[in-house]
Amino acid sequence: MLDPHQRSLRVGLAALACALVFRLFSLGLPEKLVAWLAQPDTAAFLFYLETGRNVRFSTSEAVFSPDFLESPPAQTPIPTFSGEEEVDLTYSTVKDPDISALLEKPLTWDLYGTDPTVLIVHTHTTESYTKSGETYEETSSWRTLDENYNMLSIGDRVAQVLEDAGISVLHDRALHDYPSYNGSYTDARASIQEYLDQYPSIQLVLDLHRDASGSLYNQLRTAVELDSQTSAQLMIVLGTNYDTYEDNLSLGLKLQVQLERQAPGITRPLQLRASRFNQDLCPGALLVEVGAAGNTHGEALLAAQELAQAVIALAQGSR
Q1: Torsion over CA of 199, 128, 162 and 226, rounded to 10 degrees?
Q2: pLDDT of residue 301
């Protein structure tokens, strides 16, 4: 039982609490508090303090709705080109294109849609890399029919990243250099033309190779450190012996700049050569050397990932 003094104290405190509540309601503070909590940014912040999860809420959702959306991953900034970017080039041709003008030229493609817009081919399909614990069979030094380790695996990685970004890809899996290496480009040309005839939606043709230079026991290895991992380097090769080569060069220059922006050191100088490399078949055709025979397969896969991300960035910038 409470004594009279305790009862009086309790009644007094209850009356004071009621008066305080009435005063708060008269000032509209509860409504203001609820409105503040209902703000998407506030809800997301409090949810982050509680769970450590970074979320964003739609303004149409109830406060702390379970139907939240995870914050999207950071996107590569949409690239723009002023024509003043520095690009390393090597010339094996008499052509002298206006590099600044070609960099500044707008990219007019659209790689998004339901129809295939990217074709990946490998003129030298069986090219492979230096073994690093793998046990696959080689047809000759740094060449194999094993699709897990030849250029088809590199194309698969590029295709996967592009498709995950909503870009529809065709991947030619023909062995253009086997059983005979001679005539590889002629054989690949027939395949590319067939794809272009069947899928006029194709706007980018990537011919993925790996470079080779050196002796039988000392092959070229390219390397760059990316996020504490060693990646192979990429080299864009552009033929100039056809009338529309500047269209492809404009694209190649932009890709070179974008690659260096997102992964400094990933590229070797862009090579201009007095050849065609079947690039005359499409105004968006590029030959890319993904590492060299001295690289490991894992290093080449990292470079392939960067290549795909750069293509995605260019595709987003042209939308």
Answers
A1: -150
A2: 98
